[in-house]
What we know:
The protein is α/β, with parallel strands linked by helices. The protein folds into two domains: 19-61 and 99-213, Rossmann fold (3-Layer(aba) Sandwich), CATH 3.40.50; 65-96 and 218-401, Rossmann fold. It is built from 16 helices and 14 strands. Strands 3-4-14-9-10-13 form a six-stranded mixed β-sheet, sandwiched between helices. It has a four-stranded antiparallel β-sheet with strand order 1-2-12-11. The N and C termini lie far apart (58 Å). Pyridoxal-5'-phosphate binds next to helix 11 and helix 15.
Amino acid sequence: MSSATAPLDRFSQPDKAGHFGRYGGVYVPETLMTALEELTAAYEQARSEPAFQKELAHHLKEFAGRPTELYFASRLTEHCGGAKIYLKREDLLHTGAHKINNAIGQALLALRMGKKRIIAETGAGQHGVATAAVCAKFGLQCIVYMGQVDMERQALNVFRMRLMGAEVRAVTSGQKTLKDAVNEAMRDWVTNVRDTHYILGSALGSHPYPMMVRDFHRFIGREAKEQILAREGRLPDEIVACVGGGSNAIGCFFEFLEDTKVRLIGVEAGGHGIKRGEHAARFEGGKLGVLQGAMTYILQDPDGQIELTHSVSAGLDYAAIGPEHAFYRDRKRIDYAYACDDEVLEAFKTCSRLEGIIPALESSHALVEGLKRAKALPKDKIVLINLSGRGDKDVQQVAKILGVTL
Ligand SMILES: *Cc1c(COP(=O)(O)O)cnc(C)c1O
């Protein structure tokens, strides 16, 4: 049996030290080891308890709006002229994207651990907004670290967080963007670890975060599987999702890993094309290294300095990819592609015009690849695209790019 078709169950959980094969692990300062061990133990305990799972499911339903619809995109299907296209509607969730799944899960965990102070990092502000919302709901103190440059670019999200009672702290070190905000959040955690939980926003960082964040997003794939079986009586042929840190993708793919007839495709940000500093496609230009807690593929120069990244979508604009993705890529279970800014804008417009659904620019990366594949496949095939978020947050930026004055 080739490695590509071997059963995955033995491999789909990291080892005790959090490794997915050679990737992942715990690469943090000594001062954070205790916090991570405590978190791992609390999570292992919680996830085996039906009461915790029940509470999680309750809040995901009542606060976030799960389950989300699986929507047959008839006009996109007609437009492509090939496979049937289904959209998993994570864009319908409260606060506008899948991120709320993880924010709720980790907030519940913090409450169990008796930690009343929450810190988070945010780039575009989407994870910050989701975290601020759950902290308001559960009565937790919320501090969000955000690069000063990002705060200026995403002023509306800063205001949203503040409306919900969060304190947004400007980070002025480094490039004043997401990577620097993560560093600042880790510094805070080291200092205040006794009463503080760090809600990390993607399937990134050191163990147990990649595993835990993935688990909190597994509802996406579980629902999608049930829904497509009810609707079509069979599984999709291909599933496509965008990959920033990789949380919406792994949450969607995970339930299908052992269904080896289902092709899984992750889409990274190709930005202006695969040239240094012009994209965020870690599997195209990246090399193995360690960043912010985990061993994975990273965009770095020959001296190991982290390279600048670019994408039209802030949510995919990060130099490292979640370690579990690197593992399944090696095993040839998940394929990876990238989409460039201009194609992404086209897909954004096409989906808006044909379906009446304005997708997030991040999700539009998945649309680019999904539509290409649907076109190339015959009509009896099915392509499922995970629509990770809605595009309301992006309309001002798109107007500017299109030269429209509002
Ligand atoms: C943050 C974000 C992403 C990227 O994060 P992942 O962890 O890779 O899922 C994708 N889509 C939307 C709408 C986002 O807000």
